Amino acid sequence: MTQKDSIFAEPLAHVSDFAFDQTVVEVFPDMINRSVPGYQSILQGIGQLTKRYAQPHSTLYDLGCSLGAATLAMRQQVADIAEVAIVGVDNSAAMIERCQLLLQGYRSSVPVTLRCENVQDTPIENASVVTMNFTLQFVPPEQRYGVLANVYAGLRPGGVLLLSEKFHSMDPMMDELLVDIHHNFKRANGYSELEISQKRAAIENVMRIDSLETHRQRLQDIGFQHIQVWFQCYNFAAMIAVKGATQEGA
What we know:
- Helix content is 40%, strand content 20%.
- With 250 residues, the chain is of the alpha/beta class.
- It has a domain at 39-168 and 209-242: Rossmann fold (3-Layer(aba) Sandwich), CATH 3.40.50.
- The chain is globular and about 50 Å long.
- InterPro entries: CmoA (IPR005271), Methyltransf_25 (IPR041698), SAM-dependent_MTases_sf (IPR029063).
- Keywords: Methyltransferase, S-adenosyl-L-methionine, Transferase.
């Protein structure tokens, strides 16, 4: 049974930087569903888009797989596609260990390999779908272009990147609005003012978010030909970026 997230419920003398450790693993499903608006809809969309774009004899990647929610959403949709395999990557050993246990609870003919490493170090090969579900925002900003360029290079023509991110608005007034209504969402889900404040302090040095404009321009600069936001709720969005069917050197 999923434990309730109460990590920041009591006053802390010192708020340490947020880490995906064993404490977070125990409450992660509750945390993310109460913190990320539309999370279940995003997972459903990842499954649908994976079914549409997964190619036979290719590899699917879930970069920053945490407990494997996106991995499961992908795997459930590709059982009838010939010889596909999934690689899940996360740099938290606690997450990988629990993910392995959860995946074993669902029978499937689609093999999944889990790797405990930084996504910056993951080779992308023969890929048709790569998912980064709220992962890039935890990669140091100066390394994000390289990570996405590596994804692009490893994608087959017609392959896709599914990118979900929290973002900030370029308009300060609109950014304040989005932050406020997101905090209202968390209050409605039972988080106290103390929890919201301490979680924000813990994560501000770990999760540095971009604007949607920055995401779009970076993807265009890398070479993705078709880019679209397919889901947005408050300051959370999911994008799809498609590698063109005909690319030089592809």
